[in-house]
Give the backbone structure.
Amino acid sequence: MKTTLETTADPSSDDLAFLAERLTAFNDGDVGPSGRKPIAVFVRDEHGAVVAGISGYTAWGWLYVQWLWVDERLRGQHMAGDMLDAYEREAVARGCQNAWIDTFNPTAAKVYERQGYRRFGELPDFPIGRSRIFLQKKL
């Protein structure tokens, strides 16, 4: 088989979907089906606009927090904690026993620690001048 190596900053959605399908099939055969399912919690204002949200997925009995954002006007009002509580309740209902999240924001790390998350790893200078902090929690 003759092959070529292609590097791109603009991969096609079809190629990315193919890659995801192939890796999912490999992992399912290796460790069993993940049961991966998206999950999100949104906070909306009186006009229906999203003013805070959290999203990620559940898989293999774990909840992953991919994105969590709160509008500046709502920060300091326990909005992240309320969203995490709702997010975790849904994950437990799905059979999850653990959760994990990562951040490079020290303030966010403190919020997560107040919610019961514990640090398990760190990557220094990711980005430069900060550390990417990895946290987990038993649900």
